[in-house]
Design brief:
about 90 residues, alpha+beta, elongated, about 15% strand, single chain, two-stranded antiparallel sheet, about 55% helix
Amino acid sequence: MNIKTVTNNDSADTSLEAGGVRRRKTMVRFKTLLDVRRFLARVCNDLDRNNIGESKARTFGYLCAVMRDIIKDSDLETRVLRLEKELEKNKP
């Protein structure tokens, strides 16, 4: 799984989840569309279990759509640059 969770070791910030379970706050890094899909699936599950509100889930959904577009554009840009480099290399 390409989602990296990074814990902030500077503080032991934890929050209570449903059922009184403590969970360390983490930061999710999106590198691939699979990462976005997995995160959004987790958001859907949290919404279904009433662990997060509709407004927060909607916000996450919007941000996932933005991240999806950025990842797609970035991948396309990388491929175009690689092709341009190959064309320059093969010029007589």
